[in-house]
Design goal:
Structural class: alpha+beta
Helix content: 55-70%
Number of helices: 8
Amino acid sequence: MCSSDLEKTKIKKQLLRIILASLLFGGGLIFSTQLQATPGGIGKYVIFFSAYLLVGTPILKAATRQALAGRFFNEFFLMAIATLGAILINQLPEAVGVMLFFTTGELLQDLAVARSRSSIADLLNMRPDFARIITAGKSKEVDPDTVEVGREILVKPGEKIPLDGTITAGSSFVDTSALTGESVPRRVELRDNVAAGMINGGGLLKIKVTKRFAQSSLAKIMHLIEESADKKAPVERFISRFATWYTPLIVFSALFLAVIPPL
């Protein structure tokens, strides 16, 4: 099973846990009086603990793993101590609500990341596998990176245009949606410029290469996407730095308020 399939399976399981926990949470709130009337209030504990474990178990596991690695002050640790503290003071609905909202936020983040990765994968798949150069009247398939400027290449119907260039023979309709987002194919003919990543429609094209693949429009787009995927946004960097101070401050402040006033 590939990574994208594993990611989809993970998201589906996470969504199912959220739905089940939401049903239990909602039912527990609606029938709180009846549940409280059960012997020892056991009904309330069964319903809310079940909901808590459904959405809270992955968070508690993550908090434990981080703690064992010596990283205590993170969002998982905060969620764990906040909700366990709520349970200790018998505020079960609050504990479930916090975990439910946090897990829902994690799901939305995972969906956004999965969509971004899918878009990046689609873009990387646009990279042509070969270029068909014309030498002594014959065509030969070579790596697009090895084709020099000024060489003539042949692009058959249905193939990706491997390099930026100018049409020297033939006419066709090209699919530019991967580069420009336009859904309608564009007609190209003699002396028109075409870009790497476009897909040739129904005509045979001869193209004179005007740029090496590394300088092509497609290569520049791919480079920008890969570079942005590896970098954090300024806001994300600020939050990461802020969290290193904010998290321990909140934890120790809570401990102070819990211990000192009663003493």
